Amino acid sequence: MTDEQTILTLAQALKNSDQAIMVDLLLNWQQEKARINDPEAFHDGTWWVYMPIRAWQEQLSWISERTIQRNLKELNELGLIRIGDFNRYRYDRTRWYTVNEEKLKKMISEDRGKNNG
Hints:
A hairpin with a 2-residue loop joins β1 and β2. α1 packs across α2. The strands form two sheets. The protein has a three-stranded antiparallel sheet with strand order 3-5-4. The chain has 117 residues and is mostly helical.
């Protein structure tokens, strides 16, 4: 994904540029997990990223941890991302994230259709 036009289209569809950037980052991290073939990151037939909120905030320094949490919740409610728990230990509450690429493609194509029609 990661071309600027696609990110802009996603930002427009979501009406939130920070969420679009978050989806793009997540896709890039997933692609890296797939590239290195990380067996611990493959669950339920797809690649997942293990990501504490603090790590998100380090990457997105202009967004507060609370806003990152809210954005992730909203993206999950939209069906654009999935949130999982594949941790080895019960006390580890770090979440895993993956992009629903079918939903992403559909959202982008619908938005492009609205703007071209």
